[in-house]
Each structure stands twice: as C-alpha cells, then as structure tokens.
Amino acid sequence: MNNPIQQYYQLRSEVGQFSVKLSGVHFGHIACRKGCCECCMDLSVWPVEFYAIVEEMKAIGWPKPKLNADKECGFLDEQGGCQIYPFRPLICRTHGLPLAYWYDDTNPPGYGVMFCKKNFTGVDDIDFGSNSTLNMDTINEQLARINIVFIDENKDLSFEPTTRIELRELLTHL
Fold this sequence. Notes:
The strands form two sheets. Strands 3-2-4 form a three-stranded mixed β-sheet. Helix 1 (4-25) crosses helix 2 and helix 1 runs antiparallel to helix 4. It has one domain (4-173). The protein has helices spanning 4-25, 47-60, 90-93, 136-153, 170-173; strands at 44-45, 99-103, 110-114, 134-135, 165-166. The chain is α+β, with helices and mostly antiparallel strands.
C-alpha cells in the first residue's frame, strides 16, 4: 500500500477501531454523545488528510456542507451535529477519549493524559495505561510520515512539510 491517501484511510480505520475499544473500556465515564460538540472547533489539517477527505466526499457525492458561522466549528449544523461526520479528521475521531502525549517540560518528563472536562468526573481510580489511552504522539508521527510521502508525490501542489490547510477550505474543493 504505497498510496499515501490509502495509508491515511488505513490509519484512520485503525484509530477508529481503537477509539471504539476505548469507548467500551471507559463506558460510563464518558459523557460525550451525539450532539455534544464542546470539543468541536475550526481547525486545520495536513494536506494528505485534507485531500483524502475531499476525494472521499466527492467519490460518494456527499452534499456540500453549509458553513455555520454561529458555531465554534463551521461544519456543525443547528443541532450540533457534524455535517462531515463520516469524513471527519483524525483529531475529531478522538474527542473525549483519554489521549496520551509525551511532555518534555514536566519534572520528571513523561506521559500526560488529556480528555474532555465533561468526562471522568468524580473518578479517582481510572487506569490510564497503554491499553486504555490513545497515544497521540504515535498517531501524529504516522500521519506526519504519510503526509511527507503525499507532499513528495504531489510536488505540483507546492506544499511544505509544515503546511496546514483550514478544514473550511473543503467548501472551495467540493
């Protein structure tokens, strides 16, 4: 599987499967449900993710979303539902779940866990080990490698390895 778009879809699938597993592990401690959009915000993504989303939406003829200027994320509808939910970026697929990140600036350096403030309230004994968190550093490293291959294979797009594209640019590409 050399195609970076296909590699992205595979990574997205793996993240999705692990996210479902984590939702089961932490069931009862996660308050996030359909319509909860507290973590949703306008964001930017790397070119490979952007073009994978565009390609997939076009392939199935997904209706062009309407930008909602009244919401933190312009792709939320009036009820707080995501208009691009099946195609949402990796970070959106992990909202609310316990996400592990390495912190060099702590004493001692080590992993810290982030999650939505609505979740894990009043609980002191949650195991946030490797089987119960999603290591976002690993996911982001994989995504960065896939993105570099995408950029190398699409030099005509003139992207740098640090290029980010506002997700709302989908509207101009659909």
